[in-house]
Amino acid sequence: MTSEPKKRWPLDLKIFGILLATWAMFLFMIAIFIDGDFVLVNPLHAIVGGMFFNFDDARLVLMIEAGIFGVIGIGIIAQRRWAVVSALIYMAQIVISHLAYAITCLPIRFELTHVRESAMQGPVLVLITLYLWIRATEFLFEAPATLTQTRDAAPTIVEIGGDGRSRSFPPLGNH
To answer: Which of 38, 61, 68, 85 is 20 to 30 Å from the Cα of 6, by its Cα?
Structure first.
């Protein structure tokens, strides 16, 4: 199978996968166990695609998000490259979604508390997305060969002179 890992993944990425799976369980528990009494004081809400969801709609959105986070977290723990790419894409979608919500709902006066909350989450979401970008580029793109690796792998230059004798020259830099 082509998705099998070739080397061990760093510990911080595995910890991120565990945190992601834990967050999925937390979201799922919130979506299931929040009762109607609490909903009146501080309603469930979720933002997806720049849209704000409340109450039962938010419950469904949170359950779907919990499933997505759970699958990605388990994939990262299992060291699958698709999981890191999926996490990066999903986090980029979350950042764009929060930004779109904040921009479109800023003029609406009764949405200012939600816009403020969304704006306060922005820097953390961007940092997580940047972390995933750094980790995804490490695993998806092969690192270019260093100068010493290139020199060691360079073939020896062979020159055949007019007298029929051959002389070989080592690559530059290997003195």
So the answer is: 68
